[in-house]
Amino acid sequence: MSVGTSSAPGNRAARRRAPAPRPCDPAGLGIDPDELPDGLVVADENGRVICCNTAAERIADVRAADVLGRPLEKALPLEDLESRRWWQLTDPYGGLAIRTRQPERNLLLPGGREVLVTARYVRTEPTGPVHRVVVTLRDTEARRRTERSHAELIATVAHELRSPLTSVKGFTATLLAKWERFTDDQKRLMLETVDADADRVTRLIAELLDISRIDSGRLELRRQPVDIGAAVGRHIQAYVAAGLPADRFLLRIEQPLPDLWADPDKVDQVLSNLLENAVRHGEGTVTIDIAATESPREGEDTGTSVTVSDEGPGIPEESMNRVFTRFWRGSKRGGTGLGLYIVKGIVEAHGGTITVGRAPGGGAEFRFTLPVAVPAYLL
């Protein structure tokens, strides 16, 4: 970014005749301010702007050429959320001599646009006059998206918890109050309902814990040798035992497969979500293909891919890019919309990749690839 020489504020003609701008490097570190991710505005000892980088132009919707040489309070007419003029309120040049900074806070630009602002007061000596005021600006949109996402998560959780907890409370209260009036079959039915609703609450809490760990990067993996074919077979057997016809599933394993080291519980969670998605939302045969493939991680030659596809209506093209986001639901047939978000987080925590597309039979096709991830001590 460039700096121009300026004269008195009212002398506009003199500013127009100023020499060509010089590179702005207020810290003397040889850093180009335009390379900084945050907006940067610097004012000199007289309170006039000597630097305004590209990010600040974008965030504050100004042109550097228009603000260089202007008083800071004119170049950035910030107000707090109570409509008080920020620079008059804080008085960076005439305030307490021991102040060195202003912590980050939400302020408003003209037009009501909200930005995050931090200021640093640079003094040549302790308690001396302010030599520079360095201001950083950040757009609030990313933070607002995060806050909206958290609010949606809380609302979804509250809604999903209300139904099973209401059921549990209702049945237990009824049983306690009128135990002798019910037959054994009626009691069993109510207790089975309470048990199923308790499982539903437990699953939701587990999902929330997984999301918290994924978002914070604290998802722990306990890698062990995993027989991915046997793991898929167990899930298929569970569905058949629950009443689905065996010919609803087709498992194809391309041999030989590389040894896979992964967290077996987390892999089971991924398989459970993908197969449940295919059974619940898809139609026809659910096909699971397991094969060796190129590793998604550098430094490894091979990996293992698992493809789950069905013959249902598939996922609309316009929804493909939202499948792995929070709260996406392929239909209105239940679910929290968190399962595929968790699946993606687990796969990526293993160093793998996951994609979604259209299956040859027209349904949805999910394919995840895991690196073999053999521990270094076995190599």
Could you tell me the strand content as a percent range?
15-25%
Gyration radius (Cα, Å) is 30 Å
Count the beta strands: 14
Mean pLDDT: 84
Trace the largest sheet across and list its strands.
Answer: 4-3-7-6-5
Structural class: alpha+beta
Number of helices: 10
Please provide a brief summary of the model.
37% of the residues lie in helices and 22% in strands. By secondary structure, it is α+β, with helices and mostly antiparallel strands.
Written account of the structure:
This protein has 379 residues and is of the alpha+beta class. It has a five-stranded antiparallel sheet. A five-stranded mixed sheet has the order 9-11-12-14-13. The two termini are 51 Å apart. 37% of the residues lie in helices and 22% in strands. It contains ten helices and 14 strands.
Key attributes of the depicted protein:
single chain; 379 residues; alpha+beta; 5-stranded antiparallel sheet; 5-stranded mixed sheet; 14 strands; 37% helix; elongated; disordered N terminus
